[in-house]
Design brief:
This protein is of the alpha/beta class. It is built from 17 helices and 14 strands. It has a six-stranded parallel beta sheet with strand order 1-11-10-9-12-13, with helices on both faces. A hairpin with a 5-residue loop joins strand 2 and strand 3. Helix 10 packs across helix 11.
Length: 434
Amino acid sequence: MVIPYPSREAEERLKHIATRRLGADPSLEKKVLEILETVKREGDAALLRYTRQFDAPSMDQAGMSVEEDEIRAAYDAVDSTFLEILRTAMANVEAFHRQQLHPSHFSTRPDGSFTGQMVRPVAAAGLYIPGGKGGETPLISSVLMNGIPARLAGVKDLALATPPRKDGSINPHLLVAAREVGVTRIHKMGSAWAVAALAYGTDSVSKVDVIVGPGNIYVALAKKLVSGEVGIDLLAGPSEILVIADGQARPEYIAADLLSQAEHDPLAAALLISTDAASAKRVEDCLRQQLEKLPRRDIAVAALERYGAIFLVQTLDMALQLSNRIAPEHLELQVQDPWSCLGKIEHAGAVFMGESTPEAVGDYFAGPNHVLPTAGTARFASALGVENFLKRTSVISYSREALERDGASIIRLAELEGLGAHAASVRVRLTGIP
């Protein structure tokens, strides 16, 4: 149903969409915390027990990590076309993320003082990759988007965690992608217990410094709860797309793009802001037609009914203002002149320009990262990038001349804050008296 904006009905729908927040169920968070504590306490025994219970009933301890022969067999199992596509996508992702590398920098002053910043990678990073329909729909793109920035940052120990298939194996396409991007170890473990193992370490799983990657509500809550013990990328919620369209946009394109996110999850949001009533109505018709052929129809229907909306606005400027209010994960500009709109976008995870740029090109191939802020967090958060795997360390060296010049000022500020020892640490160097 097309909803005019502004209106009371539009406000109610927007308020409902905004309720898609992580951690709304305290009992679920308690359950995840119990899993974390169990792995922290019992280590490998807990990992094996959870894996047997939920993923691979016949798994043994020796099979919990991928061996080199499994990697070799994976390369034999995939075809050359897949490898060619994979390597082209990798090249695109790497070319984009290489621009995010920032070197250490240092500067000196005539008085001999020296300041700078050392940029260093974390020692170890964990990539969580969901299983995807029992391992039959491997999330290759997530391996690339999480692994390539980490490798470019210079992370030496790159651990990948993914749940095994029922027979204890990992999809060969995922194994090949992991090897190609430079993953150094692969652990067959999923859900909250995998996050716990990466965060706390076990006898067989070395702990990491940063955990990144998508996952279900158990994974998201586990990352939230271990944040501080380790770094995390972001607290990703259900996926979302917002399309801004004018009367020239093709309804069949818009409908297809809305469904590309609605099929993810019943909690996904698929929104259209249109400046043309007739076009908005045609999008509704196209949605009904395309849903009939969609393999994940039930999921998409649930998402559209709960968190879908078509808002009708009078002007393109109103559409852009509403978009900034929503701060979407994915924003498509299917308008006659998308470039004239770009400067007015204040909050969005990623912007897709024009009718030839569906969101899917960003998911898989263009190069920018597809790990994006959701649920309005694009107001303050950014896409995953090389910087998520880097630390910045300040370096300071004062000469005697510089200390004599600045010492009285430092003492004054320290005393104003009531920190006498701070002041004394400078005074003793200047006067010999603490």
